[in-house]
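User: Hi! I have a protein structure encoded as tokens and I'd like to know what sequence might fold into it. I'm fairly new to this, so please keep things simple.
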């Protein structure tokens, strides 16, 4: 709180509000003094407060308002709330005392007793005069407290004669300092206030200062082609009918080569009375000349989308790519958003035109081809202009950090092209197979539902946490293992898993939830997401979402299909190869453990991987003191849990829960592990300290992974941050490795005539669609490029599988 006071005061002053702070004086006393001066001048006074002490100031001229609740209180309101009029509030508070303000009062006297005495005896003086008449223990307390009541009274009564550094008439509002406020709001990331500051009138003034042009003739376009040809760097953006890249139609393109100057080329606006536009084919033929220049830099915001739209119309971009979204992401991966509007507010202090402003909202929202050029041109041109300004603002920060520059130029920017290809390649699915799976799952879900009704002794909504909580804890009396933040017993999955060990209903609920999610998310939904034009599923890979650098997948999410359950594996079997082709999947083997071996330099782990041992069996042999050939399946299972648990920073408590053993037993496993692999323990301590000192950790490539809560005073958050600090370098390095492999394989596939496509990336796995006769050639190249993506102290091993489907 202390660190917030000074910037808060600066913001208040910049808003033009008078700020009065008198050294060594309570704010309440300053308020009381101002009230006295105002009343003396005959002014009416409104005090904004929720503090009961201020009620003593209420009079015919003075009213209170609690802006948190909206309650307004005059003299009648004070009497109604407290039971005494304003002139008796000091007496009332004196009798009750206040431990927060160190006012002793009379012990055990509450509001009812204080009101009763004051109404009976008229005032504090009357209560003191008749103290001998009050019976019982409360009377004894009153008599024992008489000597201190005058002090309590003096502490409660507000001073109204404080010497102020200004006159009442000086306290007037001035014009706000908009420039200062903009800088404060940018620095503090107060997005809502910043948007309000940059209101429509100011935004319109800003728009009038820029040069945004509509290009409607070949002559005007040719002039801009000359500007693009002369520019080393240009910003580019596309506008389309819809967001779905595989079904979107190109409506227009925009460019900028200089801040404040941009052009929009409408290509397919088809509203009534829309002006004639330059033919699309002619524009694309001209752009091809610009896009093939490998020395020129194309800047964009989420360039993958633009590349895919251009790819759909047959244009391939050879320019160097610079994506402002990815620049922001690499500079601060822990930030929540990297969209253009957020970045413009944060880095430029500018509010951009939103799509809703030009297209409307809800069911009546127009598609971009229906928007009149009067609105479309400023919106589209601004996108290119702001993107260029963001680049010119952010890129110098990258230039100063050669490591982050390397991450962008060797991994993230080249990956934009690779992901555009993968997304547009898509994957075939067997709709009939998924329909059949949906029917089977539906029958099993109904069976689990009936079983749950039997166990619960009646029907209820299995998807309702409230009803489930009542059944489990109130009706069946199961033990409460955890509560929600609101204090009710939890029905979260981890709680149900623990209860399912001893009780049948939680196990049934878990099975019901798992099958219901699989059905709704995949077997029902995937057939609806087949692209009509290609007959395939096309996911979208997000580069700027996760804090560790891993890709995420949306619309649909192909990375969360379960692989450990038979039902999940059956869904994967519906991802098929066309006739004459095979599905090839290549998965890094135990990549995070290999990265741990490299980072820690532990001789035991390095030797296990160098000798190509089963690392879980090798760990079991070390931890349990068993010859490698005698390791049991149970020991290997425990060792696997230890290996993966520790790289995720798991505690003995977490390991005990996972293995269902006593906590002391789990701790003994961890102690033995660290005794056998001491450098792993040293690494963990070292990385925790690094995170605490600098607030971030790094991948082997140098990508920064922020750990914002590493020094949190909240113990649970701090421990979670420490676990994240341990795992982030491994998970982030694994992400970098597979991205590097993807870029290399995409370059190879783009330059060869081999009939093969990269069609999916799922965590540490790449999936390809390959013509049968070239499967051996592809496997050889994939293994070579994936295993050599990054040089580690241990070999990178790739497991390759071939089949007619992803599930083989």
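Assistant: Happy to help. Inverse folding works backwards from shape to sequence: for each of the 808 positions I chose a residue that suits the local structure. Here it is:
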């Amino acid at each position: 709180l202390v660190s917030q006071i000074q910037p808060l005061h600066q913001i208040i002053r910049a808003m033009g509000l008078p700020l009065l702070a008198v050294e060594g004086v309570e704010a309440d006393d300053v308020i009381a003094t101002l009230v006295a001066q105002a009343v003396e001048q005959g002014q009416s006074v409104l005090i904004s407060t929720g503090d009961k002490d201020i009620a003593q100031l209420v009079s015919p001229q003075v009213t209170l308002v609690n802006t948190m609740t909206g309650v307004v209180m005059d003299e009648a309101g004070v009497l109604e709330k407290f039971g005494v009029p304003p002139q008796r509030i000091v007496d009332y508070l004196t009798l009750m005392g206040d431990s927060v303000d160190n006012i002793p009062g009379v012990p055990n006297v509450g509001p009812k007793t204080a009101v009763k005495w004051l109404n009976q005896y008229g005032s504090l003086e009357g209560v003191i005069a008749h103290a001998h008449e009050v019976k019982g223990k409360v009377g004894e307390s009153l008599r024992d407290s008489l000597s201190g009541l005058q002090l309590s009274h003096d502490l409660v009564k507000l001073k109204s004669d404080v010497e102020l550094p200004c006159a009442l008439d000086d306290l007037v509002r001035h014009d706000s300092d908009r420039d200062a406020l903009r800088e404060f709001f940018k620095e503090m990331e107060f997005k809502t206030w910043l948007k309000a500051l940059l209101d429509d009138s100011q935004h319109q003034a800003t728009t009038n200062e820029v040069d945004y042009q509509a290009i409607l003739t070949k002559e005007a376009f040719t002039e801009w082609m000359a500007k693009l040809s002369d520019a080393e760097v240009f910003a580019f953006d596309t506008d389309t009918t819809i967001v779905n890249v595989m079904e979107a139609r190109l409506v227009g393109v925009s460019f900028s080569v200089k801040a404040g100057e941009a052009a929009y080329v409408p290509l397919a606006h088809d509203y009534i009375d829309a002006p004639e536009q330059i033919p699309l084919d002619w524009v694309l033929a001209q752009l091809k000349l610009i896009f093939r220049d490998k020395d020129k830099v194309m800047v964009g915001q989420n360039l993958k989308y633009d590349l895919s739209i251009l790819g759909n119309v047959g244009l391939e971009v050879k320019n160097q790519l610079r994506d402002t979204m990815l620049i922001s992401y690499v500079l601060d991966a822990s930030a929540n958003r990297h969209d253009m509007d957020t970045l413009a507010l944060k880095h430029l202090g500018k509010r951009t035109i939103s799509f809703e402003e030009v297209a409307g909202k809800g069911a009546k929202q127009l598609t971009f081809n229906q928007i009149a050029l009067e609105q479309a041109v400023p919106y589209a041109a601004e996108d290119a202009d702001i993107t260029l300004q963001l680049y010119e603002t952010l890129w110098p920060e990258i230039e100063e950090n050669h490591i982050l520059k390397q991450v962008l130029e060797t991994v993230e920017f080249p990956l934009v092209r690779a992901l555009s290809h993968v997304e547009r390649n898509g994957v075939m699915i067997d709709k009939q197979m998924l329909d059949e799976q949906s029917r089977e799952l539906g029958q099993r879900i109904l069976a689990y539902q009936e079983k749950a009704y039997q166990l619960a002794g009646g029907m209820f909504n299995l998807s309702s946490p409230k009803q489930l909580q009542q059944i489990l804890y109130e009706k069946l009396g199961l033990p409460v293992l955890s509560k929600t933040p609101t204090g009710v017993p939890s029905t979260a999955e981890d709680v149900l898993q623990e209860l399912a060990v001893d009780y049948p209903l939680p196990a049934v609920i878990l099975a019901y939830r798992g099958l219901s999610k699989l059905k709704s998310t995949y077997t029902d939904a995937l057939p609806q997401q087949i692209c009509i034009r290609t007959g395939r599923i096309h996911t979208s890979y997000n580069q700027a979402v996760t804090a560790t650098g891993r890709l995420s997948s949306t619309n649909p999410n192909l990375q969360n299909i379960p692989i450990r359950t038979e039902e999940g594996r059956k869904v994967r079997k519906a991802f098929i190869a066309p006739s004459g082709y095979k599905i090839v999947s290549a998965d890094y083997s135990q990549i995070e453990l290999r990265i741990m071996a490299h980072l820690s330099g532990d001789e035991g782990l390095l030797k296990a991987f160098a000798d190509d041992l089963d690392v879980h069996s090798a760990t079991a042999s070390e931890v349990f003191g068993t010859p490698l050939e005698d390791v049991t399946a149970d020991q290997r299972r425990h060792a696997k849990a230890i290996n993966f648990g520790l790289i995720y920073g798991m505690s003995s408590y977490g390991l005990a829960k996972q293995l269902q053993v006593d906590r002391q037993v789990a701790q003994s496993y961890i102690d033995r592990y660290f005794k056998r692999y001491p450098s792993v323990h040293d690494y963990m301590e070292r990385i925790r300290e690094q995170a605490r000192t600098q607030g971030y950790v790094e991948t082997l490539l140098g990508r920064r992974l922020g750990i914002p809560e590493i020094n949190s005073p909240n113990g649970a958050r701090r421990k979670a941050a420490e676990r994240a600090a341990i795992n982030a370098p491994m998970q982030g390095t694994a992400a970098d490795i597979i991205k590097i492999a993807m870029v290399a394989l995409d370059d190879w596939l783009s330059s060869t005539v081999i009939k093969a496509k990269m069609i999916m990336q799922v965590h540490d796995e790449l999936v390809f669609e390959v013509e049968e006769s070239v499967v051996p050639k592809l496997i050889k190249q994939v293994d070579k490029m994936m295993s050599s993506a990054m040089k580690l102290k241990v070999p990178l091993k790739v497991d390759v599988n071939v089949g007619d489907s992803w599930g083989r």
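A useful reference point when you look it over: Residues 592 and 726 are 11 Å apart (CA to CA). Feel free to ask if any position seems puzzling.
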